[in-house]
Amino acid sequence: MCWGRGWCPWYGCNDEIIKTDGQNVTWRKSGRHQLLGNIRQGDVSLTITGATKEDEGTYCCRVEIPGWFNDLKKEMNVNMNEVLTISEDVTGSMNDTLTLPCTYTPHKDQRSMCWERGDCSQFGCNKEIIKTDGQNVTERKSDRYQLLGDISEGDVSLTITGATKEDKGTYCCHVEIPGQFNDRKKKVEVKIQEAENAESTSKIPNSHTHITATRKSMYQTYDVSHNPVTLTTRTTSFTSQVTGNSEHKSQSTSTTSIVIPSIVVTLFLITLIGVIIFLYKYKSGKKTITESTLPVVNLEALEKAGHKTTDNIYT
Length: 315
What we know:
By secondary structure, the protein is an alpha+beta fold.
């Protein structure tokens, strides 16, 4: 008996793919075609391993029986229900290395393939970013796009290094298979998460928060439309500078707050001492004046008067 591709002819098998002598397989076109049943008991069911779109079509099983027009023939159609386009999401952050998965079953015939940006094109890749001939990379748009898997084994996963916001969007893995509408396609949606504001990681003292925020706002108004990256770096440096100046001002204020009370206390003490001295001198001067205004008693006159009084008593 034999198996062949296409309709059963009058004799034998067209495009023969496997044959037996009634006991064992005597010839086969490919190791993918096998008879796993008991051939001697008449089980000649054909098994095709690693089926592809190319295996789609009509097959003929022919069992030869001696005599005219005695052969047994059976025709069957094989339809491959293949999902041509599938989708998957890949999420990453800024500067990450992203891997967009895509694999297929390799064939003895090399399968060229490509990756493109945007939705899958009907034929080939319109916005091609990398391409292979089934063995090696033949073209690439940038060194950031790499195929690090074993291409010959069907691993054509795309690696994107140093992810940026511009990398987000739709990608298509397009594996070319001979025949109309046989190509395998896989759509991958890349999402880039924006990092949190780097300024939030810097802890700024509460006393300086208002000043820093005001200066940053002024700087962003000037430079944000030109280069956001440079803006972040410069803003961070500028914030440190403003904070430093604020700390210096704070230290100056603290020093002033210590010096001024000292001066006031010193002036107060000087004034107090001056008042005490003034009062002391005032009291001393008053006492002197009082003593100087007392009448001066002439002791000699008193003595003479006394004597005279005494003399008068006896006289």
